[in-house]
Give the backbone structure.
Amino acid sequence: MIVTSRIVFRPVRPDDYPRLYEIESDPTTAMTWRYRSGMPSAEEYEAALWRQSHQIMVVEGRDTGTVVGYLQLHDLDLRAGHGWFSLYAGPEHRGSGLVMEGLMAYCEWVFGEWPIRWLYAHSFEHNAQSFQSGMRRGRGTLLGVLHERMQVGDQLVDVHVIGISRESWMESPLRHRFNTLRARRR
């Protein structure tokens, strides 16, 4: 568990599943569901959520105790030294910075716990702007754009492939600042 003045970053618990389902059932989130069959029913959700996943970590607002989003580590290839992550934020918390702070906790956690060199994420073009600050600071890298890769509704959309390297995160001034603020949380 990682605690800052604003968030608690912790492993998911079974009592979190209804909230995660609520976050993913939002129409703006449901279109990003990574399984082709779409959003599973509530009864099938837990099994679908864990398919291909190695760990799920939630971001909880420290002042409210509400799960504001979560990050999922999936499709690990330890021989190649990489894995994928998915990031979901409750619609009412998008833009608050809480889940992005959770992403910093996630990088600290994943690179500290798993022997991987790279983390990758797919992001629709309209969500890629959320990663721009980290990419400007050199912590994330736009590895490519898959043009018209996914169909959302009746429209083909671009998918951005974003990467974060262990080396980049470990040497990052952002990491240092995050851990300094984390140490002051008391």
Q: What stands out?
A: Helices lie at 17-25, 27-30, 45-50, 98-113, 125-128, 132-136, 166-170, 173-183. The radius of gyration is 16 Å. The longest helix spans residues 98-113. The mean pLDDT is 81.
